[in-house]
Design brief:
alpha+beta, Nuclear Transport Factor 2, Chain: A, 8-stranded mixed beta sheet
């Protein structure tokens, strides 16, 4: 009985802190994702600089594990191909689940996106399911994984691409 009371006391002290940590982690993961998409959508050089600040040293990126310099090279190639980019998390679709004990969060949601390449006279736009992983073990959130899972309708890589005068 005494041992049960001690365990209950410990749980009463720990559980509110775990719940508060989870809520704080969820909010931070959401804010980081939204801020990253804002920079990625507006400033190519800042987006590349951000890679070393907000990504973990090793990142699972579309099924491959890359270090920061490899990820930065991937991002640079994408920016060259699509110099104009607009990405936004669709309101009401974002869900964040966290494990304070593992110091990890996963964000799921729909991203509405639009890209353009004036040089190639091509535009693309669509909506895609998006999953992003965060690690909080260093004291600040770092992105450790990211993948687009195809269109909201379920067909992979769904996009509308139009060529011609932009």
């Amino acid at each position: 009985m005494r041992k049960s009371l001690k365990m209950a006391a410990v749980l009463l002290c720990v559980l509110p802190n775990v719940a508060a940590a989870r809520g704080s982690m969820e909010a931070n993961a959401f804010r980081l994702s939204r801020a990253y998409l804002g920079v990625w959508s507006s400033n190519s050089s800042a987006a590349l600089q951000q890679v070393s600040l907000i990504y973990g040293p090793r990142v699972r990126f579309y099924g491959r594990v890359l270090n920061r310099s490899g990820l930065q090279a991937e991002k640079r190639r994408f920016i060259q191909r699509w110099p104009i980019r607009r990405y936004s998390l669709r309101p009401g679709t974002v869900r964040v689940s966290c494990s304070p004990l593992k110091a990890r969060c996963t964000l799921h949601g729909v991203i509405d996106w639009r890209t353009e390449s004036p040089r190639r006279a091509v535009r693309a736009h669509g909506s895609s399911w998006f999953v992003q992983g965060f690690d909080f073990s260093t004291g600040r959130p770092l992105i450790v994984s990211g993948v687009w899972l195809g269109s909201q309708e379920g067909s992979p890589h769904h996009a509308r691409v139009s060529a011609g005068k932009i």
